[in-house]
Amino acid sequence: MHKELESFFGLEGKIAMVTGGAVHLGFDAAEALAAAGADLAISSRDIGKAKKSAALLSEKYGVEVLPLSLDQTNPQDVSETFARVMKWKGRLDILVNNAGGGGPAANGNFLGNSPANIAALIDLNLTGVIYCCREAGKIMAAQRSGKIINIASIAGILGRDRRMYARNGMSGQPVEYAAAKAGVIGLTMDLAGYLSPMGVHVNCISPGGTKGPDSKLPPGFVTDYADRTPLGRFGEYGKDIKGAILFLSGSASDYVTGQNLVVDGGFSIWH
Ligand SMILES: NC(=O)c1ccc[n+]([C@@H]2O[C@H](COP(=O)([O-])OP(=O)(O)OC[C@H]3O[C@@H](n4cnc5c(N)ncnc54)[C@H](O)[C@@H]3O)[C@@H](O)[C@H]2O)c1
């Protein structure tokens, strides 16, 4: 690779953190960062999973990977986890704020849902993301540099076609998830303005539906979804998010902040 391209995408000497980095999209983000040469911390609620993925990445890419346990709905835990990263390397250049999703509180029955369930989903997908931005923001503002990448979703920019879910026997898609992910996109824009005088970039990525080979999604849903997608397929773990992560982590994106990079095979253009 030409040296100029290496300077755009190479991350040697950088320190990164990926929340929920042990599996799926978080693992993909961690793998892209490790392949580009960054040392990184990966967190999971399950420290055993974090240790396993950390060992795999450090062996494959020859970088240092620190496994951490983190429940991002607990602000004390978030502060202590970022403090551990600082104790480890003394800086943080990149945060991929990835943890989120349905979780045990996901309930598609909005009209019958409980306040506790609603709050739990918002806590995981929005408030926890804000806590992580705040801790990373403090560190990066003091450094006068850093890149925060929040993982939102196309659910934050589009309503779902619920007919497609209903005809495939799926109903458990909570509207609170969409509300939280739209919040992450708003957070990204306003926080980018707040932190840009301090040298910190904030962007987000909105993936479309993405799955692995062991997915339990009904085959009819996967076919319907692929048919609604200009590129004709579902997103895949292991590859589709990596390029966007590298672009927003490296100096290639030094003039980009407050943006929402949609990685959905074009799904959102047909709505
Ligand atoms: N897969 C998709 O179709 C898709 C589409 C759009 C957006 N996303 C978003 O991408 C991100 C990763 O999704 P995924 O597909 O890899 O899902 P996943 O369920 O496999 O991963 C979610 C991650 O979040 C972590 N997590 C859950 N609760 C947590 C908590 N309280 N504290 C800390 N970590 C917690 C999990 O341990 C896991 O690592 C999520 O934010 C999700 O909303 C996924």
Q: Please, could you describe this protein's structure?
A:
The chain has helices at residues 3-9, 24-35, 47-61, 75-89, 115-143, 162-166, 175-195, 219-227, 242-249; strands spanning 15-19, 39-44, 65-69, 94-97, 146-151, 200-207, 210-211, 235-236, 260-263. The protein has one domain (3-270): NAD(P)-binding Rossmann-like Domain (Rossmann fold, 3-Layer(aba) Sandwich), CATH 3.40.50.720. It is built from nine helices and nine strands. The chain starts with a helix and ends in an 8-residue tail after the last strand. Helix 2 crosses helix 9. The chain is globular, with a radius of gyration of 18 Å. The mean pLDDT is 96. It has a seven-stranded parallel β-sheet, with helices on both faces. A two-stranded parallel sheet has the order 7-8. The protein is α/β, with parallel strands linked by helices. Nicotinamide-adenine-dinucleotide binds at residues 19-20, 22-26, 44-45, 70-73, 98-101, 103, 124, 128, 151, 153, 207, 209-210.
What ranges have pLDDT less than 50 throughout 5 or more consecutive residues?
Answer: none
User: How much of the residues is beta strand, in percent?
Assistant: 15-25%
Number of helical elements:
9
CATH topology term: Rossmann fold
Bound molecules: nicotinamide-adenine-dinucleotide
Strand order within the widest sheet?
Answer: 3-2-1-4-5-6-9
Rg result: 18 Å
| CATH homologous superfamily placement | NAD(P)-binding Rossmann-like Domain
Number of strands: 9
Helix content: 40-55%
Outline the biggest β-sheet: 7 strands, parallel
Number of domains: 1
**Mass-distribution shape:** globular
Average pLDDT, all residues: 96
The CATH architecture term is: 3-Layer(aba) Sandwich
Q: How widely separated are the two ends?
A: 39 Å
Question: Can you identify the CATH class?
Answer: Alpha Beta
H/E series: HEHEHEHEHEHHEEHEHE
Question: Which structural class is indicated by helix and strand composition?
Answer: alpha/beta
